[in-house]
Amino acid sequence: HIYRNEQSGRWASAFPMGVALLLAPFYRLGAWLDTLPALRINDAHFIGIQGVPFAYSLSIMLGINVYTLLTLWIGYRTARHFASPWFAALSTLALYAGTPLLFYTTVEPLSSHAAGAFAATLLLYLWLRARASYCKPGWCKALRWLEIGLVAGLATLCRWQLALLAVPIGLALL
């Protein structure tokens, strides 16, 4: 999902910045791994299809899998508030195996879908937590809504379509 920017001559991505923000620590890991001779595996191939050497691809794939595991864990924790442990586990399994999340975690880990799923799941969790909390009006409530706004922005930066999630949350805030 990269292309060569004709003006700059550099590799570019059609996807927003949110994925890059989430994966920044894993890019750093990739830079370190790229210094190891054992991980200089067919770099020309990986640069041709992904724009980065193998070590970066490996670390980014690991990062996406970390975010997918966090997505499933947050999804399970959220479902536990509404269902028994077995039904929460079943819904978490359905979230992973019954949606494109499995595909975008394993086959296309450099896409923005898994990072977007993480941000959207975190947004839902924070919104439900804010609605259920009994903060007195003031800083506690303001901080909860600030973190919801920041995560809504992150979700939008990951995938533009996720901006629609902010609509019902904004209406609930009104």
Brief digest:
The protein is mainly α. Helix content is 68%, strand content 3%.
Q: What can you tell me about this protein's structure?
A:
The chain has 174 residues and is mainly alpha-helical. It has eight helices and two strands. It has helices spanning 18-33, 43-50, 54-80, 85-97, 101-106, 113-132, 139-158, 166-173, and strands at 2-4, 11-13. It has a two-stranded antiparallel ribbon with strand order 1-2. Strand 1 (2-4) and strand 2 form a beta hairpin. The longest helix has 27 residues, at 54-80.
The number of helical segments is: 8
- Going across the biggest sheet, name each strand in turn: 1-2
Would you report the number of β strands?
2
Shape: globular
Return residue spans where pLDDT drops below 50 for at least 5 consecutive residues: none
Q: Determine the fraction of residues in helical runs and give it as a percent range.
A: 55-70%
Write the layout of secondary structure elements.
Blueprint: E1 2-4, E2 11-13, H1 18-33, H2 43-50, H3 54-80, H4 85-97, H5 101-106, H6 113-132, H7 139-158, H8 166-173
Antiparallel strand pairs: 1-2
Helix pairs in contact: 1-3, 3-4, 3-6, 6-7
